[in-house]
Amino acid sequence: MKILEQYILRRVVLMFLTALLPVLAIIWTTQVLQRINLVTDSGQSVGSFMVLATMILPTIVATVLPFALVIGITHTLTTMNNDSELAVIDAAGAPRSIIQRPLILLAAGLSIFSFVMMGFVEPAMRVNVRTMIATAYADLLSSVIEEKTFRQIEPGLYVQISERQSGRTMKGLLVADSRDPASELIYYAREGAVDESGKSLVMQDGEVQRKAPSGDVTVIRFDRYAFDLSDLSEERGQARFSAKDRDLFYLMDPDPLDERYIAKPNDFSAELHRRISASFFPLVFALISLMMCGDARSHREARLHPMASALLMALTLFWASNYMTSLAEASTALVPLLYLVPLACGAAAAFMLVTNRSPKLPKAISSLIQTAVTLTQKRLGAGTGGAA
């Protein structure tokens, strides 16, 4: 690689990381805060929460990465154009490929990286996250670990304890069960404990109040009562995986007995092709960025900022891809559209680069922008002159 190519690549990579890391940190923080209830509700340690937060990070890298590449390329090349570096490169007789080649190679490498992340790393992390959350909420004792606070175990079932002692013993239990519309049950007990298997809550020295739909209330005292948790523990401890949680090999050959696959088979096909097509985004976005600002241009030319134009096109392409994915989930006949959108955009940008053509605004819009710029300059000039 030539010295000039290394210089351009180094600047783009530096700007790419400068854009990627802060945005990644912001999105990662918002995703982590959505899981903060793992600590507040289930009583997990801070260490477990940090492990969970670490596993969330790879699930968002592939989404942010292509946009950070757009910012890195457009900012670097726009700065070089403003500093007349691109004009000097053209005047020296260097081909445009000297600018394009290192950036396309970088984008191709990031596309391979995105493919690996979306195909294997991201689903593996999703599975680990879901399994960890399901395991944390499986134990009723963990779910009500905070004293003197009502906790919703599931819709219609609430538990409160006054004091948690050593082991699995609890004092002052209150269980409100309204899951069955035919009756509402409220259990009071002086003490109780969840057995080691988590299948039952054994309450001692208490009473149960049963309220019928007619309003009649029946009170029964008991010395010892076992509240069945078997179905609840199995349901809460079992992680359910959707198409987004499966790796590429599974999506290519799903388990025919998978409940999610039986219910929505098109989701697995659409997710498979979405990941493959989305892995082209870094390369396509790089071609779009080079098309917008890969050549020397005059500062007087009326146009939107290259970064704004490139990001607008990238966001439009990203939105269109997601929309095509939703269509493919409804009908597998529309799966080719997932590839058509990014490849058509990439081919159009590559054609513009090969033929040394530059995108231009329509004459009407260009004239309007130029008129607005001229009027603004005149007013600023007049204001400056008056102040002087």
From TrEMBL:
Quick one: signal sequence residues? none
Q: Which domain of life is it from?
A: Bacteria
- Membrane topology, record value: Multi-pass membrane protein
Q: Could you confirm whether the keyword Transcription regulation appears in this record?
A: no
Which InterPro entries does this entry report, sorted A to Z?
LptF, LptG/LptF_permease
Q: Where are the transmembrane segments?
A: 12-29, 49-71, 103-121, 276-292, 304-321, 333-354
The record's subcellular location field reads: Cell membrane
Keyword terms, alphabetized: Cell membrane, Membrane, Plasmid, Transmembrane, Transmembrane helix
Which Pfam families does the record associate with it? LptF_LptG (PF03739)
Query: PANTHER family this protein is in?
Result: SLR0882 PROTEIN-RELATED (PTHR33529), YJGP_YJGQ FAMILY PERMEASE (PTHR33529:SF6)
Protein's recorded name: LPS export ABC transporter permease LptF
Species source reads Peteryoungia algae
| Lineage of source species | Bacteria, Pseudomonadati, Pseudomonadota, Alphaproteobacteria, Hyphomicrobiales
